Amino acid sequence: MNVDVSPVESADRAETAIAMLSPLPFVADPLPGIGGAIKATPGHFVVEEILPYAACGEGEHAYVTFRRAGWNTADVARIMQKHLGLAPSDVGWGGRKDKTAVVVQTLSFRCGVNHPLADVERRLADLPIEILAIDRHRNKIKTGHVAANRFTVIVSDPGPDALPRGLAIADRLKHTGVPNFYGPQRFGYGLQNIHRGFALFSAGKKGRKDAFMVSVVQSALFNIWLKQRMQAGDYRRLLSGDVVKKTDTGGMFTVDDLAVDGPRFAAGEIVYTGPICGFKMKPAMHAAGEKEAALFRQFTLAPEDFRRFRSPGSRREAILSLTDLALAEVDDGLRLTFTLPSGAYATTVLREFTRPS
Q1: Are 279 and 312 a contacting pair, CB within 8 Å?
Q2: pTM to 2 decimal places
Q3: What is the DSSP string of 263-323?
Q4: Is residue 237 in some structural domain?
Q5: Which residues are annotated as catalytic?
Q6: Do 224 and 268 belong together in one domain?
Q7: pLDDT tens-digit readout, 126-172
Q8: Interacting residues of 20 by C-beta distance below 8 A, sequence separation 6+
Q9: Rg of the chain's alpha carbons, rounded to an integer?
Q10: In which domain, by residue range, is 82 found?
Q11: Is 196 in the same domain as 73?
Q12: What pLDDT, in 10s, does the model give residues 179-224?
């Protein structure tokens, strides 16, 4: 199968990407949405970070679990570090969390094996955070050291019949999963980060380390790839050559026999993945690989183009499984609770309910 596309001129990459990204499809169509708004107040959006391991009780790092609102992760880490008299390199966190939310998060501080935890708590006592736990561990928390995030979100001022409409959508999503799109916050206000990201790949530009802006390009290409897959009717079926991930062990392999792997996908044992373009990315093969390659050709990009940015690439699960999604009516609107793996966006779930333009 050959997929014909017209290459995009270098200067037009960003505009083409923006046009191809908007609008993203809804997997819950044609069910009607509930309307409403999210983050009417910070308390309407609560996220609890879940680490992949618990503090062991010994070591030079103090793990401080706290609740905060009105701070982004970098700012709260900086002020805590200063109150503890530490260097920025002594602080670690697994992921950045939103400022306009109530967040439960754990940061690590290299205080030394003999530094009393009571002193750590005393030095942080005057900050506008609620300390929930302090313990010791041997290693620093590094970026990516997050297993999942638990969300409790209130959609305020929904439309009429919000609960039955929401329950119908939730039932659909439990069967179909949710497309694992990157959220709009990834691309900046007015999608301006897309222009900045693609500008790095312009002819004559010297490679410079701007990992986030490179990731914006990777994210945009992934979203476009997933949108095209949905439009082609291939969202809920495997293609020959798909790179899939085992949902129990995380092991990955390439689909060679659809008769064998199709039922495994339907049973939730495996999920297909999409391209995070980079020089070490495992490419899809056969029919699935031709679609990926066609997208890269259209943007006149290749995995090797990411080498100068030291961006190896990876594969991203294309579908999120919502095993604990629950809805309830509350005074302020409709409350949704669900858990997502690290790197997934709550907005990709919420948009299926609110249907923003």
Answers
A1: yes
A2: 0.90
A3: HHHHTTSEEEEEEE--TT-----HHHHHHHHHHHHHTT--GGGGGGGT---EEEESEE--S
A4: yes
A5: 98
A6: yes
A7: 999 999 999 999 999 998 899 999 999 999 999 999 999 999 999 99
A8: 224, 227
A9: 22
A10: 53-145
A11: no
A12: 999 999 899 988 999 999 999 998 666 656 788 999 999 999 999 9
